[in-house]
Every structure is written in structure tokens, then in C-alpha cells.
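Hey, I was hoping to borrow your eyes for a little while. A protein chain has come my way and I'm curious about its shape. Take your time with it, there's no hurry, and the full record follows here:
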Amino acid sequence: MSEYVTLKSKFFRLYSVNVDKNISLNLCGDWINSVWVWNLIWRRVIFEWEKLQVCQLLEVVQGSSSILTFDNRWTWQVGESLEFSINSTYGILREEIEEESSHMFKFF
């Protein structure tokens, strides 16, 4: 049976200087050109000896988190509202079918 250690307990010093103690790990960075870029925000400037801990933290997280291997968010980028609905999906599919059938009849 393996024993789990929280990031908070393993890197308590970094946790104590983190601005947002309740932030989810997936909100501590962004995908930029298909590469995950960390954006860790501290209450103060990190000391030189703490930078080693930051590197260790990132190694632990990168080695065990699927958030770093791909962007696992789904977005609906059709229409102005960016909101998904059955009606909007039906409209898109209907447009595609009509477009395909109009091309088919042009050849006859």
C-alpha cells in the first residue's frame, strides 16, 4: 500500500508564499502554442534557495499530471455566444448536409 503525500505538505514553504491557497493546479498556467506555461504567483520574491524547491515541485507535477500532456478542455467555437446547445449543433449539421447535397446535384 503506497502512502500519499500532498503537495502542500511536501512543499509547505512554497505553499505558504503562494498568493491563492485554494487555487486548482490546472489554473496555475496556460497553454501557449500547444505548450503548457506555468504562471505561479507568489506573495513576495522567491529566495534563491526556494527556486530549487520550485523546480522540484514542477518536476513532481509534470511527472504525474495529465494536464501537462494535452489541453483537456472542450470548447464550442461555433457562433457568437460560444455556448453549446442542441439547436446550434442541429443548425451546423443541417448546413453541412445542405452544402453536401447542393454540390452533389451540381454535377448532374
The beta strands are 29-32, 35-38.
